[in-house]
Structures are given as C-alpha cells and as structure tokens.
Amino acid sequence: MRSEHVDALRVDLLKSTYRIDRDADPAIYNLASGVVERLGIDVPITIYQAQNPEGLNASLAYLPEEAHIVLHGPLKSRLSEAEMRALLAHELGHMLLYNQWDGELLIASQVLSAMTHDRQADVSHFASARLFYLYTEVFCDRVALEVSDSPLEVISMLVKIATDLEEVNPESYLKQAQEILAKGPTKTEGYSHPEAYIRAHVLKLWHDKRDDANPEITELIEGPPTLDELDQLVGEFGPFVRLFGFRAEEIGYGTARVRLPYNLDHTRPGGTISGPAIMALADYAMYVAVLGAIGNEPLAVTTSLNVNFLRKPAETDLLCDAKLLKLGRRLVIGDMAVHADGDDEMCAHVTATYSIPPQG
C-alpha cells in the first residue's frame, strides 16, 4: 500500500472511532493476543469503538503489518468472552486471508473492487465479486471455529450480532436452520454475507465433516443457477443458444423446462419442426438440468444422446422437460420429453449422458 493511503486510513479511523487503549481495557487486548498467537499472525493490534454505530457489528481496517479492529455497538457488554474471542478471530481471518498465498487474494479483492466501481462494469463482474465476498465470510467463520472451543460459541456470536439479542440459544438456532434447509435445496440470497442460518449450518458441517463438507457448502453458497444467472452464463459460453433462441422457463435441482420458439428456419418439408432442432432442444434442456444440480459448470458436455421421434409436432413452439435419472461424480444420465406447446403428448423422447469435468 502507498504511504499516503496508509496515513489516510489511520486518520479516518481516528476521526470516526474512539480508540481503546490497552491500559483502559487489558481484557480485550489479552483476548486478541491469544487469537493472534493461535493464528500465527505476528502483527500489533489496535481496537476501536465506532462512533454512531447502526446495530452490532465489527470490521477490520486492513494494513499489511497492522491489525485495526473496529467494534460497532455495545459488543463488549453484549458478548461473552468466548463469543468475543470468536468475533476477533473472524475479523483477523480477513488479515490471514489477505496475507497468505503471497497476497494473491488481496490483489483479487482489489481488482474486483475496482471492476465493480467502474461505470462499464459487466454483470459477470458483480457476480464474481459477490462470490468472493460470500466465500470470504465463510472462510473467516471457519477461522473463528478453529480458535473457538465449540461451533456453538461462533454461532451464538453470529446470532447475537444478527438479532441484537442479549441471550440466544445456538443449539435451538441450529434446529431452526435445519428446518429451513429441510424444505429443499437452498442457496444464499446475500450479496456479501450469507444469511445467519446458512452460516450456522456451514459451521456445523465444518465441525462435523471438515473438508468433506466442502461440496455441501458450495451448494449453499452457489447452488443451482437462477434463470437470470443462466442467461448470464449462456451469454458468455453458449452462442448456439442465441442461434436457436432457446429460453429456459424453469430450473430446479436436476430438472428443467426449456422452450424452443417457433422459427421458420427450424422447419423441414412436411410442415413440421426438424429433427436436428428437436435434438438441440433436448440437449440444451439436459445441460440446464445438469447445471441445476451441480451449479455453474459450463464445461459439462454431452457424451451420448439417443432420440426416438414419436410423432410429427405442429409448427409451433416446442417445450422440453428434462429430469436427471442419475447424478454421479463424473457422469450424469437424463431423460427428456419433448412436446408441442399446448399439446401434452410427446413428439420425441430423448435420453442423454453428460460428462462432468474433474474437480481440482
């Protein structure tokens, strides 16, 4: 960082906070020192209390060789010692993230920030920044878990900050989170922070399964793409979709409905839709269903496709309903039913196999 930026950050902290001296509150500094030692971060720490806070929160003002932690609201009186330790560990997790891996993630953060503040920023820039911020928060939650004696301490801290309550029951909140997740596949709708129930569940997953929990956590953060996200993905990777005019109308976990709008270019002699257009529709519907199950993986590809043409469709829009029959680590098998809009009787039945690229 440039020296003028460092000086400006220090001055801004002094203007907008009350600096807590070590002699004035040795207890919180002793907690912070213990966290720093556990994390192996050898930097001086300064703790501040924000002026005019809105609710409970905390933040890290990042400097490469200094940790400046700002408390927002009455955290010192609201959190227990264990909860405060978890909070300090979470904030120091940001420093750990930026200082490790040769500073590559700090550079990534700065690049994404610059891109999303540009007037010509694309939707994909905001989508990338969002995922970076979301994964940063769950990474820092995991840092807090590593420093704490129990995930319940971290969950209790998160829930108190989210609700402003003086007392919470983290075990009860975990049950509440499970009730939500039991309703079906769920992913966060947050932009920079996942919802508290997702963060609580992720902490429990990491505590119970360690790195084996990562696929489940990815699904909670990224999940199946929405129709808008699918349109964005197609815009980047699928010009053939624009060629046919396909429109995904529904997407679920391993299911999809895709429309092929009527176009004279897709017809053949005899007053019907051509076989290649029907096959392309079924193939794309399978692709959408695969993305609905495994998330944003544009390099999933067709390895086989078998079609039975059952009857001649009318010259109108065609709809294809796709459903995955088997989802493996490398291969996916799906079933597609194609019918004319307004006619429930199938005009073609298609089965296909897709290959998923190896991870890592």
Secondary structure elements and their pairing?
Layout lengths: L2 H14 E4 L5 H14 L5 E6 L6 E7 L2 E7 L2 H4 L2 H19 L4 H13 L6 H25 L3 H13 L6 H12 L14 H14 L4 H8 L5 H11 L1 H6 L2 E6 L2 E6 L6 E2 L3 E2 L1 H20 L6 E9 L8 E10 L3 E10 L7 E8 L5
Parallel strand pairs: 2-4
Antiparallel strand pairs: 1-2, 3-4, 5-6, 6-10, 7-8, 9-12, 10-11, 11-12
Account of the protein in words:
The protein is an alpha+beta fold and 360 residues long. It has two domains: 3-221, no CATH class; 227-355, Hotdog Thioesterase (Thiol Ester Dehydrase, Chain A, Roll). The protein contains 13 helices and twelve strands. The chain has helices at residues 3-16, 26-39, 75-78, 81-99, 104-116, 123-147, 151-163, 170-181, 196-209, 214-221, 227-237, 239-244, 275-294; strands spanning 17-20, 45-50, 57-63, 66-72, 247-252, 255-260, 267-268, 272-273, 301-309, 318-327, 331-340, 348-355. Helix 4 packs across helix 6, helix 8 (170-181) packs across helix 9 and helix 9 runs antiparallel to helix 10. The mean pLDDT is 90.
Describe the structure concisely.
With 360 residues, the chain is α+β, with helices and mostly antiparallel strands. It contains 13 helices and twelve strands.
Main traits of this protein?
about 350 residues; alpha+beta; Thiol Ester Dehydrase, Chain A; 2 domains; 4-stranded mixed β-sheet; 13 helices
Mean pLDDT: 90
Global Rg: 26 Å
Low-confidence stretches: none
Number of strands: 12
Q: How far apart, in Å, are the first and last alpha carbons?
A: 32 Å
The order of strands across the largest sheet is: 5-6-10-11-12-9
Q: Give the ordered list of helices and strands.
A: HEHEEEHHHHHHHHHHEEEEHEEEE
Total domain units: 2
